[in-house]
Structure formats: structure tokens, C-alpha cells
Amino acid sequence: MTKYDWLLLIHLLGAFCFLSGSIVAGILHAAATRRDRPSEVALLLGLVRPMVAVVGAGSIVVLVFGVWLARDAGYGVSDGWVVAAIALWAVSNALAGPAGKSLRQARELAERLAANGNHPSEELHRAVADRRALIFNYTSFLLLIVILVLMVFKPGS
Amino acid sequence: MVAAIRATEWNWLLLFHLLFSFALVGGAITVVTTSFAAVRKAWPEQVPLLRAIAFRTNLLVVLPGFVGAHVFGSLLADREYPHHEPDWLSAGFAITDAALIVGGVLLTLLQFWVLRRTRAGSPGGWQAAVATYLPPFVLAALVSVIVLMAGKPIS
Questions:
Q1: Is residue A157 included in any domain, yes or no?
Q2: The model's pTM
Q3: Which residues of chain A are under the pLDDT cut of 70?
Q4: Is residue B129 within 8 Å of residue B97, measured between CB atoms?
Q5: Residue A48 covered by a domain
Q6: Would residue A12 count as lying in a domain?
Q7: Predicted pLDDT of residue B3
Q8: Among B1, B18, B22, whose Cβ lies nearest the Cβ of A152?
Q9: Which end of chain A is more exposed for a tag (fewer CB within 10 A), N or C?
Q10: pLDDT for residue B42
Q11: Number of compact structural domains in chain A
Q12: Selected residue of A1, A8, A153 to mutate for chain B interface (largest B Cβ count, 10 A)
């Protein structure tokens, strides 16, 4: 395997952790929004927790090895599509932060309610389906797709 | 930015191949996570919910992911290697085919069976054990395909 192959492999593994981890979190979150019992919501949002670490590690790996790969392949870090991808990466991460905090608060509320009778709660339902967090999450994921488009088409290169 | 994109047939195929691949791996990780959570003794009353999520994810995300990644991957391979398929590509397709049959088709049927048994009050048995411990092997097969596709370790 050449140096380029190694860089591409690690960059792609990071991308899979980043994007596929986000998909896992999205599936489990979507399932949680359809549940009423706090114990079920707490369980599903609890399963999202390890994915946060996977997505976080993937986002760092994909950026570091992506820049390294671009330089190794003869692209400039100041090329338009590289700059745009890095900017979108930053915005995507900035949006995912508050959304993750909102989900953590929803999980903590679900755990408290589960320990105190496990009765369905309108407050929990609102917290899990928080409109602002959903918009941030979907926008963040959409930006990852745009980054993927930039990586494949490399406009202007 | 979109206007600046000069689309080619090859790039669109690669884009869709990657999109389906990301969905496939994301679905496979979800199936592993929920299947293992279903056998944890701490949550016996949540087993039907977790088995249902594993089954639906396999049916609605993993299976379409397999088909999409395979179809667009094949179209891509036909254009990039029209005369001679390299060994890493042949190995990748062979592993994907096996994973599709085992992890896509057989596992989905097994999960449906396990879900019905769980809802009927029988969450255990060899069926549940296989439905729990098979998904990590499917995920490992997918990771090996990623290594083959990106690293091209064999000529």
C-alpha cells in the first residue's frame, strides 16, 4: 500500500465514523421521539451516548487526514473546495454541539422520570422532539452531505 | 457553489455509492447496538422495543444500503475497470455478496422470527443468540470491504 492509500483509508474510516455514527444517532433519536414511556426514551437516548464519542473522533480524523491527503495528492489547502469543506465542517460541528446538549438534557429528564413512576410526560415529549435541536441536527447532517459532494466533485480543481 | 460543480456520470455514481455505503454501515452499527442492548439483563421489559428497532433498521436501512452500494459500485467498476477487475475489487464484491445474503436477507428473516417470539413471551433461544451475535460479523465484513476499497492491499 502506498502512502496515499494509507491516508485515503484512514480518512475514509474517519468519514464512516463521522457520517455513519450520525446516522446511528439519528435512527435512535427518531425512535425515541415515538416513545411515551420515560424508561424507553432514556434507554434509546442512552444508546446514542457512545455514538457521540465515535462521531467526535471521526470528525477529527476526517479533517486531519483529509488535509494531509489533499496536500499529498497535490491539491492546495487554499483551494476553494477544500476551504469550503473545512468551513462547512466547522459549521456542522458548531450546530451539532447545542443539539447534543439538548438531547443530553432530554435523556437526563427521561432518567429522572423513569425513576419516579415512569409515567408519560408532555415535558419529556417536548424535550425529545425539541424543534430547535432537530433543525440543528438535520442541518448539521445536510452539511456533511454537501461536504461529501465537494469531496467527490472537487469543483474548481 | 452548486453551479460550479461539473457533474460527470462517474462522479455521480461514486457519490451514490458512498451515500448508500454510509447508510449501510450506519444501519449495521445500529443493529449491533440494539441487538446487544436487547440481551442485557438490566432492561428485560425493553427487549421487544430493541428487537423491533433492530429488525426495522435491517429491513429499511441495511438491505437498501446493501443493494444501493452494490448496484452503484458495480456500475462504477464497469467504467473504471472495463477489461480486467483487480483482485481487491473481486474480493470486495465477494465479501459484499456474502454479507448481503447473510446480513441482509437471512438476518432480516431471523430478526422477524425473533421479534415474533419475543412478543409472544419467548425472548431467548438460539434464534435470539444468532440474531445478536451475527450482526458484529456483518459489520466486520463491511469494514474489511472498506479497507479493500480504500487501501487496495492486493493488486
A1: no
A2: 0.92
A3: none
A4: no
A5: yes
A6: yes
A7: 36
A8: B18
A9: N
A10: 63
A11: 1
A12: A153
